[in-house]
Write a structure and sequence with these properties.
Layout (H helix, E strand, L loop, with lengths): L3 H10 L5 H14 L3 H12 L10 E2 L2 E5 L6 E3 L6 H4 L3 E2 L4 H10 L3 E6 L1 H8 L8 E6 H24 L11 H6 L3 H4 L14 E6 L1
Antiparallel strand pairs: 1-4, 2-3, 2-6, 5-6, 5-7
Helix pairs in contact: 1-2, 1-7, 2-3, 2-7, 5-7
Length: about 200
């Protein structure tokens, strides 16, 4: 293929690409090119997010409450200013867990909401209960696909700047070229100010 960057580019083009493999190879490239911010982004995609979450990881779904009388899930309507807050939420799971959720889910994935938010909702509810946020599995696929596209576009950007990584190594010129603002600040495009509620590990259903 003529270099590890072009190898990764070819893999990222495939509809059957293994997203975890793509992240591992991208991590090696970022490490060798001394692209710390991109390296940190990959680590968070692998291990999960603990702080700020990229815009593409905010997805929409429906809020449900457990009816203690019959054990059924009932939809929760949110009015006023709270509607926007519940329209999107950040998926913080690492890519391995996210991918497993997508593979095992039939149609939807259910996420538990945080205890703090549960307490807030229960203050205005007619009874105390537990809540879940249900999203179509297709939205998980969209997140996974966006990460794959981000890696693909990154390899194209590297190639445009003469960075290919022959024999799994990079020249001093390639490492220097990698510090160009368009490459070094590439992950800035992933983030935006988005509000959403805090959720916990999801379950497929």
């Amino acid at each position: 293929m003529g270099g590890i960057v072009l190898e990764l580019q070819q893999e990222a083009l495939s509809k059957d690409a293994n997203i975890e493999s793509l992240l591992r190879k991208a991590y090696v490239i970022a490490k060798k090119l001394k692209l710390k911010e991109f390296e940190d982004w990959i680590k968070q995609e692998q291990d999960g997010y603990k702080a700020e979450v990229p815009q593409y990881r905010y997805i929409g779904g429906s809020l449900y409450a457990l009816n203690p009388a019959n054990g059924r899930q009932i939809p929760v309507g949110i009015s006023g200013g709270g509607r926007d807050k519940f329209s999107k939420f950040p998926i913080k799971e690492g890519m391995s867990s996210l991918n497993d959720l997508y593979i095992t889910a039939k149609d939807n994935v259910s996420f538990s909401i945080s205890s703090k938010l549960t307490d807030t909702l229960n203050k205005t509810a007619p009874f105390e209960t537990i809540y879940s946020y249900v999203v179509p599995k297709s939205q998980l696929h969209q997140v996974i696909g966006t990460v794959q596209n981000n890696i693909l576009n990154w390899t194209l950007l590297l190639e445009e700047n003469g960075i290919v990584g022959e024999n799994l190594s990079f020249t001093e010129t390639e490492i220097k070229n990698a510090q160009a603002p368009s490459i070094n600040n590439y992950i800035n495009n992933f983030y935006a100010n988005v509000e959403g509620m805090d959720l916990q590990q999801g379950n497929s259903k």
